[in-house]
Amino acid sequence: MMTYSKETDLLCATPLLATHDLAVKIEGHIERRASGRIRDLHVVCEEGHITLTGRSRTYHAKQLALQAALDLSGEHCILANLIEVF
User: Which domains does the chain show, CATH number per domain?
Assistant: First the structure.
Protein backbone atom coordinates (compact mmCIF):
# COMPACT_ATOMS: atom_id res chain seq x y z
CA MET A 1 0.00 0.00 0.00
CA MET A 2 1.33 3.42 -0.95
CA THR A 3 0.88 6.40 1.29
CA TYR A 4 1.48 10.07 0.78
CA SER A 5 3.26 12.18 3.36
CA LYS A 6 2.83 15.96 3.29
CA GLU A 7 6.09 16.33 5.21
CA THR A 8 8.21 14.85 2.44
CA ASP A 9 6.10 15.48 -0.67
CA LEU A 10 7.47 12.17 -1.90
CA LEU A 11 5.25 9.45 -3.29
CA CYS A 12 7.39 6.36 -2.89
CA ALA A 13 7.65 3.05 -1.09
CA THR A 14 9.59 4.91 1.65
CA PRO A 15 7.34 7.91 2.34
CA LEU A 16 8.50 8.50 5.90
CA LEU A 17 12.05 9.39 4.92
CA ALA A 18 12.75 13.01 4.17
CA THR A 19 13.96 13.50 0.60
CA HIS A 20 17.43 14.54 1.75
CA ASP A 21 17.72 11.49 4.01
CA LEU A 22 16.65 9.24 1.17
CA ALA A 23 19.23 10.82 -1.15
CA VAL A 24 21.99 10.28 1.43
CA LYS A 25 20.95 6.65 1.95
CA ILE A 26 20.87 5.99 -1.79
CA GLU A 27 24.30 7.61 -2.29
CA GLY A 28 25.79 5.43 0.45
CA HIS A 29 24.19 2.30 -0.97
CA ILE A 30 25.51 3.10 -4.46
CA GLU A 31 29.01 3.67 -3.07
CA ARG A 32 28.93 0.26 -1.41
CA ARG A 33 27.46 -1.60 -4.39
CA ALA A 34 29.66 0.07 -7.02
CA SER A 35 32.76 -0.06 -4.79
CA GLY A 36 33.59 3.59 -5.39
CA ARG A 37 33.56 3.29 -9.19
CA ILE A 38 31.21 6.25 -9.62
CA ARG A 39 32.99 9.60 -9.43
CA ASP A 40 31.26 12.84 -8.48
CA LEU A 41 28.15 10.88 -7.49
CA HIS A 42 25.16 13.05 -6.65
CA VAL A 43 21.61 11.89 -5.93
CA VAL A 44 18.65 14.28 -5.97
CA CYS A 45 15.23 13.23 -4.67
CA GLU A 46 12.27 15.50 -5.22
CA GLU A 47 8.55 14.98 -5.79
CA GLY A 48 8.82 11.26 -6.47
CA HIS A 49 11.72 11.66 -8.90
CA ILE A 50 15.22 10.42 -8.21
CA THR A 51 18.10 11.61 -10.38
CA LEU A 52 21.55 10.05 -10.37
CA THR A 53 24.49 12.02 -11.75
CA GLY A 54 28.19 11.34 -11.82
CA ARG A 55 30.87 9.73 -13.96
CA SER A 56 31.93 6.15 -14.46
CA ARG A 57 34.50 4.37 -16.59
CA THR A 58 32.22 1.40 -17.28
CA TYR A 59 28.62 0.81 -18.22
CA HIS A 60 28.56 -2.02 -15.67
CA ALA A 61 29.26 0.41 -12.80
CA LYS A 62 26.47 2.67 -14.10
CA GLN A 63 24.07 -0.29 -14.01
CA LEU A 64 25.20 -1.22 -10.48
CA ALA A 65 24.36 2.34 -9.41
CA LEU A 66 20.92 2.08 -11.01
CA GLN A 67 20.18 -1.22 -9.30
CA ALA A 68 21.38 0.11 -5.94
CA ALA A 69 19.05 3.11 -6.30
CA LEU A 70 16.14 0.83 -7.21
CA ASP A 71 16.82 -1.25 -4.10
CA LEU A 72 15.94 1.71 -1.86
CA SER A 73 13.62 3.83 -3.98
CA GLY A 74 10.69 1.49 -4.38
CA GLU A 75 8.89 0.66 -7.58
CA HIS A 76 6.76 3.80 -7.79
CA CYS A 77 9.52 6.40 -8.10
CA ILE A 78 10.70 7.74 -11.43
CA LEU A 79 14.43 7.18 -11.70
CA ALA A 80 16.74 9.03 -14.11
CA ASN A 81 20.24 7.61 -14.43
CA LEU A 82 22.33 10.46 -15.86
CA ILE A 83 25.68 8.94 -14.92
CA GLU A 84 28.11 9.59 -17.76
CA VAL A 85 30.29 6.72 -18.97
CA PHE A 86 33.61 8.01 -20.31
Answer: 19-85 (3.40.1520.20)
Model confidence at 74: pLDDT above 50? yes
Please classify residue 59 by burial: count the beta carbons closer than 10 Å to its beta carbon, then call 0-12 exposed, 13-18 middle and 19+ buried: exposed
Task: State the Cα–Cα distance between residues 2 and 33, nearest whole angstrom.
Answer: 27
Sign of CA dihedral 6, 26, 75, 13: negative
Overall pTM > 0.85:
no
Alpha helices in the chain (DSSP H): 19-33, 59-73
Contacts 24+ apart (CB under 8 A), 31-36: 32/68, 33/64, 33/65, 33/67, 33/68, 33/71, 34/61, 34/64, 34/65, 34/68
